[in-house]
Amino acid sequence: MPKITKTAMEQSTDSPLDQVVNLLSNEISLTSSPIVICGVNRKINIGNFENIDVYAGVTIPLHGVSFVDKEALTAAVEEAVAYGFSLASKETGERYMLIKESQQGTK
After folding, report:
1. Residues 41 and 55 sit within 8 Å (Cβ to Cβ)
2. Which of 43, 55, 76, 94 is the most exposed place for a label (fewest CB within 10 A)?
């Protein structure tokens, strides 16, 4: 009997960012202040055709920024996103290097 393969949808899992957003939407109450969620995910090949994901994310509240003033909101979001992605990228990069270095020691 031929093997029945799963569809791509059945095989896929929520991405780390989806999981964080779902968690945050359950944990954060509605607020009148905007927030920005930034996350970075890196896939690391650890050998033997195995990959692991390293993810870091940060939620940055934008206190004192109103949804009414679109220019101020845009400027605050741009600044928060640049800062948030730099933090998340730095953290995933450091974990990436630690994992790669530990893998070199096992070869």
Report:
1. yes
2. 43
> Residue 19 domain-assigned?
no
Q: Is 40 helix (H, G, I), strand (E, B) or coil?
A: strand
Give the range of the structural domain holding residue 78, as residue numbers without chain letter.
34-105
- Amino acid at residue number 73: L
Angle at 89 between CA 10 and CA 47, to 5 degrees: 55
* 54 SS3 class: strand
Spatial contact of 34 and 67, defined as CB atoms under 8 Å apart: yes
Q: Please tell me the pTM assigned to this model.
A: 0.59
Q: Which residue has the tokens 């953290």?
A: 91
CA distance 96 to 35: 27
Q: For residue 24, is it within any domain?
A: no
Quick one: tokens of 103? 């893998």
Q: How far apart are CA 97 and CA 61, in angstroms?
A: 29
